[in-house]
Amino acid sequence: MARALIMTLLFSAGAFAQTAPVLRTRSNAPEMPPVKAAQGYSTLPASASGEYELDSKGSVVQITIQDNRLTGYVTKIEGDAALTLFFNRTSIEGSRISFTTQAVHNLHYAFTGEIVRGRAAGPDQPGFYRMIGKLTEYHGGLQERKQVHLKSTPRVL
Length: 157
What we know:
By secondary structure, the chain is mainly beta. It has 1 helix and 9 strands. The radius of gyration is 25 Å and the shape is globular.
């Protein structure tokens, strides 16, 4: 009888075995489409990647230039809320860049311009680089186009 009990426990041990954890995606979470980055030729130094001040509220444009491709996002600050809009189309050619963000809550941005050297003495100071060009904000059915001169935030090297 004891032998039968031991055999039963040994054979049923597999039923209680733990499986390795597996990461699963949420079925209701939308998948982010890949960025459509047109590969060009960048003449910008790696230190041009980073944040650029969009407004005095703390909103920024974050860009990354790597392997002649541009990626990034815009973070818009409204009161205590932050809304991040990732780039979904980009291009880079020399010092000229352009991007369009994904729409979130009927808001998206488009930029066309260039990154130039600013007047700051070093990259650890604001405005060492500047994004100069046309920024268009699309909100609902309205669009606001303006000429911008966005200062880079200090870089830690």
